[in-house]
Design goal:
Elements lengths: L8 H11 L13 H5 L10 H13 L6 E2 L12 H7 L2 H4 L11 H18 L3 E2 L6 H12 L5 E5 L4 H13 L3 E5 L18 E5 L10 H10 L3 E5 L18 E5 L15 E5 L12 E5 L5 E5 L22 H39 L3 E2 L8 E5 L4 H10 L2 E2 L2 E2 L4 E5 L6 H18 L1
Parallel strand pairs: 1-13, 3-4, 3-5, 5-6, 6-7
Antiparallel strand pairs: 2-8, 7-8, 9-10, 11-12, 12-15, 14-15
Helix pairs in contact: 4-10, 6-10, 7-8, 10-12, 11-12
């Protein structure tokens, strides 16, 4: 075994030649030279007890906030106890991705239930399980739709992380990315200069929390021959029309609001749902329901020829692993909440945000964008956003996201009480008094 090599020198040279480089070191050309030369100095090894003590000291430096008004893609929601209790069972925690479907009926059923719920929320026919995040789901959807016309149109009011991910994925596939400026924080119809496009991607609610006129943008996109991809906070779908009703061909987003804690940004859950005519191009796992030889209900992985572990050269995606445990968590959350419970949570989130927005406006923090919003909104003040956020931090409140020197993106969820919101308003009012 010591003589085993995964590839031979000849195979290595062939691969390097195929991608047009002469040496492996050229693959790291984009990394600054100062970082490549930097030597990592490792300390002497520690015992388990010493390591535990060191990690505990690091953890103690974290600051926990009971009152959180920061969103921008990761949201602080209440997670019912049943979600963690069921999702942490060992048969779920230790299960691997089901290549041998007949041996994994429990996991397959959980994925099937999750996909069914996503389809009901989005109005689509088929959903997958799943992608690493909402950003990667958006990028994969764009690649899927731009296979014949390598051009994707989007707007500068989508989540910056998603925009960066689109740029990375699409550039690698030689797909042109056109980023149009939003007007008043909202996406616009596509100008004639765009020409024919493979896909148009927009978000509603968008990064600034505003509800887009999706139908108008979708109609404009289709006039340019583009498939319409709509990114949605899935919780908002409990209140609004489905992406399909609004004219979207593909619905994407991040399932993090469905039972997943903030966890420093992951792991999260990217979903893609499509109409039936696009299901053969849909990347990721698809679980179907059938019957076995004895007529009993059974679950299988379907359309596997699309996947890279079956026909690598013809795969629709390079996604190899999936977020099955995150999908399970979301399915448990949705089942526990039910349709009315989900609607109640979404309603409280929207109500809290509108209450806070009106109160902030009364003390000098006016809304920067007009238009309806879900549970996020942007304010602008003549005094500095950093001063507000520092004052809130001193009171144990994690404020919104500073977009620039004077603007803040706020978020409210069902976790924010009236007392929490009033404390924010008092702090902003005191900061304004000091300014004038």
């Amino acid at each position: 075994m010591s003589d085993y090599l995964s590839i031979t020198p000849a195979e290595r040279e062939a691969m390097l030649g195929k991608i047009g480089v002469g040496d492996v070191s050229e693959l790291y050309a984009d990394i600054p030279a100062t970082l490549l030369k930097k030597k990592v100095k490792l300390s002497e090894g520690r015992s388990q007890q010493e390591t535990f003590r060191a990690m505990k000291a690091l953890a103690a430096r974290n600051k926990n906030y009971d009152s959180v008004f920061l969103g921008a893609g990761s949201y602080n929601h209440y997670i019912p106890s049943v979600v963690k209790s069921l999702a942490s069972r060992e048969e779920f925690l230790t299960a691997y991705t089901p290549y041998q479907a007949e041996m994994s009926q429990g996991i397959l059923q959980s994925v099937f239930e999750y996909q069914t719920m996503i389809c009901r929320l989005t109005g689509m026919d088929v959903a997958n399980a799943s992608h690493y995040s909402g950003a990667t789901a958006a990028a994969e959807a764009c690649i899927m739709c731009a296979d014949k016309t390598p051009k994707v149109v989007t707007f500068d009011n989508v989540n910056p992380d998603t925009l960066d991910t689109l740029g990375t994925y699409l550039s690698a596939r030689k797909i042109e990315l056109i980023v149009l400026p939003a007007k008043g924080g909202l996406a616009t119809e596509l100008p004639e200069s765009v020409g024919k496009a493979g896909a148009v991607y927009l978000e509603s609610p968008n990064y600034y929390g505003l509800i887009e006129n999706v139908s108008a943008v979708a109609e404009s996109g289709k006039a340019h021959g583009a498939a319409v991809i709509l990114g949605c906070n899935p919780l908002s779908l409990a209140l609004f029309k489905t992406p399909r009703e609004l004219g979207a061909d593909v619905a994407v987003g991040d399932g993090q609001p469905f039972g997943m804690p903030l966890s420093f940004g992951g792991p999260y859950l990217g979903y893609i749902a499509v109409t039936k005519d696009r299901m053969r191009k849909l990347p990721g796992r698809i679980v179907g329901e059938t019957t076995d030889a004895d007529g009993r209900r059974a679950y299988v992985l379907t359309l596997q020829a699309r996947e890279q572990h079956i026909r690598r050269e013809r795969a629709t995606s390079n996604i190899c692993s999936n977020q099955a445990h995150c999908a399970l968590t979301a399915a448990i959350y949705l089942a526990a909440m039910g349709p009315q419970g989900l609607k109640d949570v979404a309603t409280v989130c929207a109500s809290n945000a509108h209450y806070l927005a009106s109160k902030l406006e009364s003390v000098g923090a006016k809304r920067f964008y007009n238009g309806e919003f879900f549970h996020e909104f942007v304010t602008v003040t003549p005094f500095k956003a950093a001063d507000i956020l520092r004052a809130l931090d001193a009171r144990g409140i994690l404020g919104g996201l500073a977009l620039d020197e004077h603007r803040i993106l706020w978020c409210c969820t069902e976790m924010n009480t009236k007392e929490d919101m009033d404390a924010v308003v008092e702090t902003v009012e005191a900061t304004y008094a000091n300014f004038v």
